[in-house]
Amino acid sequence: MNKKIAIGLATLGIVLVVSGVFTGKKINLDYEELGVISEDKLAVTDGKKFGYYDLKSNSVNLSYDFPQDTDIVPLKYKDGHAPYIKNKKYGLIDSKGNISLVASFDKLEILNSDLVITLKNKKYSITEIASAKEIVANIDNVTILGESNYLILEKENKSVIYDFVKKEESIDALDKTRIINNANDEYALSLTKKETTKNYYLNSKDNKLIELTETENATPMEINDGLVTFIDTDKKFFTYELATSKIRRFTGDYSYLSPTKNDLILVANSEGAYGYINDKEELIIPYEYQEGTTDFGNNGYAIVRKNDKYGTISKKGEIVIPIKYTDLEVLDENYLTIIDQRKRSIIDKTGKSLSKEYSGIANNNNNDLLIVMTKDKKYGIIDRNGKVIVEAKYEYISSSDKYFIFKVADRNYQIKTKEEIIDKKN
């Protein structure tokens, strides 16, 4: 029975999904790396050329060049197509390896199964894949708004909001655009036309472009979970809540105010020092930090920085984890990674040490298993409590949601599921 396996290509940051009975077995190939191509192909390189190994025919095609632009991953498929490189130019191939667009572009970005953004002679175009026809040409710059259908196209000192699914302009002839976004693909767009600025909210996942009424000529500063902070023409902060269209104005003289629905709000004074206020704008935690996290979260702590060191505080301002670390990274609400003198280890939310020190720790898509690297650059796996699951003896380890690939040595790889790793250890 065939199983889905996933292989990570370290050099190019690619994730592979192929079909085969490789789980728990070694793969020996005369090539240096494995990576993404398609259901029945492995991406490989001999160090000079890039191509694929066909699992069905056991044949190799090394006819592609390495990428010159690190933003473009060669042979990574999206909507049935993937970019390829030939003579330092980019083209497009379909899932069977047939050429859809000849390699003649300086840059290429797939929008959907019908359209790509292409760059040639320092000008961008929106190009149809089937006909190679440019439906919009001579564009100076293109901004892709997350996973939405919208692009910002800049041309001759004007901008338009372009819907590439409908293939039409939604908002045209803009003199200036300002874009604020966050990791959740929320956008606040400030669009100026004839000296009037209107603001819009876009969640690229539901693809709705919504005008934020009563915010005209205000400047969006930050966005979080449907809440946008603005500065008005009097240099005062206010927030706009998308769900209720409610505007809340603040009277204090702040240089920063975070968008949060929590009972404590992160603010900065005119000197750039950070503290926390309550709903009545009373200062609860003094201005004594260089920065802080917006939310205290379910665990009740916030990460703060003071004298270039990191720790955590409670809602009362009490220090929970001493402010003495080079950095802190949140794994989840109960676990953190601390960085001290370039050494990393796991602690719980109270500061209790759970693991020994490593040179590197990463969750790498598997939230309950962490890939670690020792000082002699050997890789292994631990869990959140610091328990060693796989001894640190491999040349490299990468993973997808369900699978791990272990580099045993050059041209020697081993693939296992997360369940196999845990069961074997138990």
Mean pLDDT: 82
Q: What is the spatial order of strands in the main beta sheet?
A: 3-44-43-42
Q: Based on helices, strands and strand pairing, what is the structural class? A: mainly beta
Helical content stands at: under 10%
Note the gap between the termini: 25 Å
Strand content: over 45%
Can you tell me the residue ranges where pLDDT is under 50 for at least 5 consecutive residues? Answer: 1-29, 68-72
- Tell me the quaternary state: single chain
**Main β-sheet description:** 4 strands, antiparallel
The helix tally amounts to: 1
Shape: flat
- Over the alpha carbons, how many angstroms does the gyration radius reach? 25 Å
Strand runs, count? 44
Q: Keywords for this structure?
A:
single chain; mainly beta; four-stranded antiparallel sheet; 1 helix; 2% helix; disordered N terminus
How would you summarize the topology of this molecule?
Blueprint lengths: L2 E7 L4 E7 L5 E3 L6 E4 L2 E5 L4 E5 L4 E6 L16 E6 L2 E6 L4 E7 L1 E4 L4 E6 L2 E6 L5 E6 L1 E4 L5 E6 L2 E6 L4 E7 L1 E6 L4 E8 L2 E8 L4 E4 L7 E6 L2 E5 L5 E5 L4 E4 L6 E2 L7 E4 L5 E4 L5 E7 L1 E2 L8 E6 L2 E6 L4 E7 L1 E4 L4 E6 L2 E6 L11 E3 L6 E5 L5 E5 L4 E7 L1 E4 L3 E7 L2 E6 H8 L1
Describe the structure.
The chain is an all-beta fold and 426 residues long. The chain is 2% helix and 56% strand. The chain has one helix and 44 strands. The chain has a four-stranded antiparallel sheet. The two termini are 25 Å apart.
Quick synopsis:
This protein is mainly beta. The protein contains one helix and 44 strands.
